[in-house]
Design a protein that fits this description.
Subunit structure: Part of the 50S ribosomal subunit. Forms a cluster with proteins L14 and L19.
Radius of gyration: 23 Å
CATH architecture of the largest domain: 2-Layer Sandwich
Helix content: under 10%
GO molecular function, one term: rRNA binding
Family: Belongs to the universal ribosomal protein uL3 family.
CATH topology of the largest domain: Double Stranded RNA Binding Domain
Distance between the termini: 17 Å
Keywords: Ribonucleoprotein, Ribosomal protein, RNA-binding, rRNA-binding
Order of helices and strands: EEEEHEEEEHEEEE
CATH class of the largest domain: Alpha Beta
Number of strands: 12
GO cellular component, one term: cytosolic large ribosomal subunit
Shape: extended
């Protein structure tokens, strides 16, 4: 597992085939916390990535970074581990930790699209575009239940609302290339989020 940042998409040629790839900067991660079952009730480590100004960092966060001996970081993520004794506070983790792995699962925050209607958000077909339909071509139809005793909106009803800006995980992305010198990782296909969005990269759980 490692934290990274989405640089963007490009394409490469391999065996006379064009492959769309996403370039991910998986720079040096630092272990800023180690949690044990004796003290916190579970075993975990916290990885930190991406530089951050000290003046934009809270005092509790500064204390954590100072204890680990690292500069303030922007993106932190906690991972459960089997044996926390295998790790050290302030330890560096680089992209070569993924070397030899053919498939990865990548999580990120999808692009936020604001408030969207049911056609964009849930792929509704919309109303008829013929005569007699009065200004509700893109509306979602009735929201209520079928009887007076149940005329409330059912839980989970597909309606207009906020679209995007949520955690998305794409599984089984093929690793195309490692560039350890420049801390770059190339994976086949697209990953969630905008350019410069932060990502969590793990070994695939469904590939053997």
């Amino acid at each position: 597992m490692i934290l990274g940042k989405k640089i963007g998409m490009t394409q490469i040629f391999e065996d006379e085939k064009l492959i769309p790839v996403t370039v991910i900067e998986a720079g040096t991660n630092f272990i800023t916390q180690i949690k044990t079952e004796e003290k916190e009730g579970y075993n975990a480590i916290t990885l930190a990535y991406g530089d951050k100004r000290e003046k934009n960092t809270t005092k509790p966060e500064l204390g954590i970074f100072k204890k680990a001996g690292v500069t303030p970081k922007r993106f932190l993520k906690e991972f459960k581990v089997a044996n926390p004794a295998d790790f050290a506070l302030g330890q560096e983790i680089k992209v070569d930790v993924l070397e030899g792995i053919e498939f990865v699962d990548i999580s990120g925050t999808s692009k936020g699209k604001g408030t969207a209607g049911v056609m964009k958000r849930h792929n509704f077909g919309g109303n008829r575009a013929s005569h007699g339909v009065s200004r509700n071509h893109r509306l979602g139809g009735s929201n209520a239940g079928g009887a007076a005793s149940n005329s409330n909106v059912p839980k989970g009803k597909k309606m207009a609302g906020r679209l995007g800006a949520e955690k998305v995980t794409v599984q089984n992305l093929q690793v195309i290339k490692f560039d350890v010198e420049n801390s770059l990782l190339l994976v086949k296909g697209a990953v969630p989020g905008p350019k410069n969005g932060y990502l969590v990269i793990k070994k695939s759980v469904k590939k053997y």
